[in-house]
Each structure stands twice: as C-alpha cells, then as structure tokens.
Amino acid sequence: MPEPSYVVAPPPVVSLPVVGLDARFPIRRVFCVGRNYAAHAREMGHDPDREPPFFFQKNAGDVVGPGEVPYPPLTEELHHEAELVVAIGRGGKDIAIGAALGHVYGYAVGLDLTRRDVQADLKKAGRPWETAKAFAQSAPVGAIQPAAAIGHPTKGRLTASVDGDLRQDGDIADMIWTVPEIIAHLSRWFTLEAGDLIFTGTPAGVGDLQRGNVIEAEIETVGALRVTIV
C-alpha cells in the first residue's frame, strides 16, 4: 500500500536516550501520580492517609532531556518536583500487582515542573490542572536505565539541589504507593501501552525556581538529571 499523505506535517517522534544503547525510547503518553509521598502531601496541606492514587497527565511533547528549559509564561511561582519515572515496555489492561514489573522497560530521573500559583488557583476553582502542569518542556527526563541492567529499585536516595543548595532529600522507599501498585491501579483506568511514562510522585522540599537556576536531581542506582532555567 502507498504511504499515507497528510494535510499538515505529522509531529516528530518524541524519544529519550537509553543507557548503553544507540536505540531510543519513544514516548507515547505521560501519566503522573499526585501526592505519593506523605511528607510532600503534608507540605501541600493535605492528609497523607493512603487513599487510592490519583493521576494527571502531561503531553508527550512536554518531555525533554537535560539542558536548558525556558521559564514558562503566566506564572510567578515555578516549582521543581524531582521524581522516579517508570518507562512502560509492554502494554496491558487490568494488570495484576504481581505481574506489573513485567511491563516495565526501565527507570529514569524526572522533573515535574509546575506553575504552582496557577495550580493553587485551579484547585480553588475546582478546575483541571493542565495549564499548571502540561506546558512546553515541563517534563525534563534523564536517560532511561533498562530494568534488565539495574533491576527494579525499591529503595534509593532521591535528591534535588538548586544552585548547589539541597532542597529535596527523600527515598523512593517512602512512596505511599509502590511502582507495581501504581501500574496495577492505572491500568484499571487506561490500557497501558509501550512508550508510556509514569511519574511516581515527589518527596517534600519542592520550591521556587528563577531564571538562571540550575537544578540537579539524582536517584541512587537510577541516574541524574541537570536542568538550567533560562
């Protein structure tokens, strides 16, 4: 069959590098878990009880690698949130907790950049979060470490520093919902597909960013990510 033509140019494939490989990981969708660390839930004014996880989304086009990220418009309170990111390598629906890790391709370090002032206004109005969360280059992610190489980390120090000042210092063992539980719950709402990313939540210590700030996020055994706000 002939190749289809399009009335406008199709978007390029968004992808991330994979440690040790020339081939890249293509991004399909980006899911994010809210309030998955008790201390962060408390600093945001919420009860950290183990309620069912909730999710919001960013766009595949919001994903960028390390480097420079522009300060977004229409905010005066840009916040960093350092997170463990799960890369899905095999799709599925209604995935059992015991089978969930078989759907994981690998892991990476990510930053969920947030227009915090905008998010606060949206929460008060009971409106969706997209303008606070899903803006251009709001999801910097480092190179993906294949699970075949590092296994499936259940603990490891997670830090974020701004201009050398340590702000976030937690451990992925402190997640309220584990990676298998997140995958199982999310797959009840969506049929997961290869290429999906899941941001798993952030520990306490999120804070304001200004132009010129350098953010360095790191997760033990997983990797590091360096971003400059310009």
Automatic annotation (TrEMBL):
* UniProt cross-references to InterPro entries, sorted A to Z: Fumarylacetoacetase-like_C, Fumarylacetoacetase_C_sf
Domain Fumarylacetoacetase-like C-terminal span(s) in chain numbering: 30-230
Tell me which UniProt keywords the record has, alphabetically: Hydrolase, Metal-binding, Pyruvate
- Check the record and name the Gene3D superfamilies matching this protein: Fumarylacetoacetase-like, C-terminal domain
What SUPFAM superfamilies does the record point to? FAH
Gene Ontology terms, MF aspect: acetylpyruvate hydrolase activity; metal ion binding
Listed PANTHER family = ACYLPYRUVASE, FLUTATHIONE S-TRANSFERASE
Q: What is this protein called?
A: Fumarylpyruvate hydrolase
Per the UniProt record, the source organism is Kaistia soli DSM 19436
